[in-house]
Amino acid sequence: MTLKGTKFQLKVWKYLKSIPKGQVKTYKQVAISINSPKSARAVANACAKNPYAPKIPCHRVIRSDGNLGGYSGRGGIKQKLKLLRSEKVVI
After folding, report:
1. What span, in angstroms and rounded, lies between the C-alpha atoms of 87 and 55?
2. The whole model's pTM is what?
3. How many Å apart are CA 56 and CA 78, to the nearest integer?
4. Tens-place pLDDT, residues 12-45
5. DSSP secondary structure letter of residue 61
């Protein structure tokens, strides 16, 4: 599959594919992992623009305060919660 997005979005989406099923990361952790430690908000925006959900698992990224944040995939935040629960993530 050839992904279409900005250079930054592609970098974020590539990293999201490395988050194992059943685990979550925060937007800040993702930003640090892609060597852009001050770009947590941009990571959240890249997740929001992800047209490949849930194949590219942006549902595995949550806010630093433990809240879910948003979900751009079909079904919105309820679907994000359902996906995380199906992966045995305790929220």
Report:
1. 14
2. 0.94
3. 18
4. 999 999 999 999 999 999 999 999 999 999 999 9
5. E
| CATH architecture observed for domain 7-86 | Orthogonal Bundle (1.10)
Residue 35 φ/ψ region, left for φ over 0, alpha for ψ in the -120 to 50 degree band, beta for the rest: left
Distance of CA 18 to the CA centre of its chain: 11
Helix (H, G, I), strand (E, B) or coil at 62: strand
Q: Is 47 annotated as catalytic?
A: no
**Choosing from 58, 61, 62, 84, which is the catalytic residue?**
58
Domain boundaries, the chain: 7-86
For the beta carbon of residue 43, count every other beta carbon within 10 angstroms.
28
Interhelix angle 40-48/7-16, nearest 10 degrees: 80
Calpha distance 57→83 (Å, rounded): 9
CB 57 within 8 A of CB 17: yes
